[in-house]
Amino acid sequence: MLKRNFIITLGTVLALFLLAGCFSDPVQDDLEDYVNNQIMPLAEEEEEIVALYESVTGVNYTDDFILYDTIELDIIPKYQTFINDLEAIRPATSEVREVHETYIQASNVQYNAMVMILEAIEFQDQGMIIDANEKLDEARTLFRQFQYDLEDLLDEHNLELEEDE
């Protein structure tokens, strides 16, 4: 009788473990890995690139020579490395891959806008500057879309981004 109870108990415990495995959420696991182990380590790289760009544009703009050199010598090489790192990320689930593709697309559009700015300065072409600024606007829209889609996916799978303090 004791042996039979032990076997029933063991069978119940094993069944519970198997059921627990059935309730795991592969998208949640992939998403958690994607944010914590893949995207967050790249955030510092991206922040550095954006800070470099902001250091020579807008209120910080001084002249075309400094802007050109900063983009050509600092921003472009760092951005190429960043995009390579970004494209090396391979999420396991289609839901996370879809969100990630928007991030890659936004980054590529922004990179191409930087290259256009270089060409516009080289040729002193105001029309190219306008085109580059439109590309930057397109990139901002795609980055926002990435953020919205990521937030929606996080909510859908009961995860939250921790805010930096």
Provide keyphrases for this structure:
165 residues, 5 helices
Provide a concise account of the structure shown:
This protein has helices at residues 2-22, 26-54, 64-88, 94-123, 126-156. The chain has 165 residues and is an all-alpha fold.
Topology:
Blueprint: H1 2-22, H2 26-54, H3 64-88, H4 94-123, H5 126-156
Helix pairs in contact: 2-3, 3-4, 4-5
Task: Provide a descriptive summary of the structure in words.
The protein has 165 residues and is mainly alpha-helical. The chain has one domain (25-156). Helices cover 82% and strands 0% of the residues. It has five helices and no strands. Helix 2 (26-54) packs antiparallel against helix 3, helix 3 (64-88) runs antiparallel to helix 4 and helix 4 packs antiparallel against helix 5. The N and C termini lie far apart (60 Å). The relative contact order is 0.10. Residues 5-22 have low confidence and may be disordered. Keywords: Signal. It comes from Evansella alkalicola. This is Lipoprotein. Residues 1-29 form the signal peptide.
Largest beta sheet, briefly?
none
Number of beta strands:
0
Radius of gyration: 24 Å
The count of domains is 1
The structure class reads mainly alpha
Through-space gap between termini = 60 Å
Separate helix tally = 5
Order of helices and strands: HHHHH
Helix content: over 70%
Low-confidence stretches: 5-22
Average of per-residue pLDDT values: 88
Beta-strand fraction estimate = under 5%
What overall geometry do the principal axes of the alpha carbons give? elongated
